[in-house]
Design a protein that fits this description.
Helices cover 54% and strands 11% of the residues. The protein is mainly α. The protein has a two-stranded antiparallel ribbon. The chain starts with a helix and ends with a strand.
Length: 54
Amino acid sequence: MIKEVVALLEIGVPWNEVMEMPSVMRTALLVASGERGGLGRFDWASGQWIERPK
């Protein structure tokens, strides 16, 4: 949870909103942000990131 909170704060989500949202929502926002930011694609079945081909 701590890593999720810190990551969301770093991308500008206000503290009170981060603390009020369910864990599932925090995870979904981090995945969406990561995919948009170029980290690759998140495989929900395995729970791991798949890197984009270089």
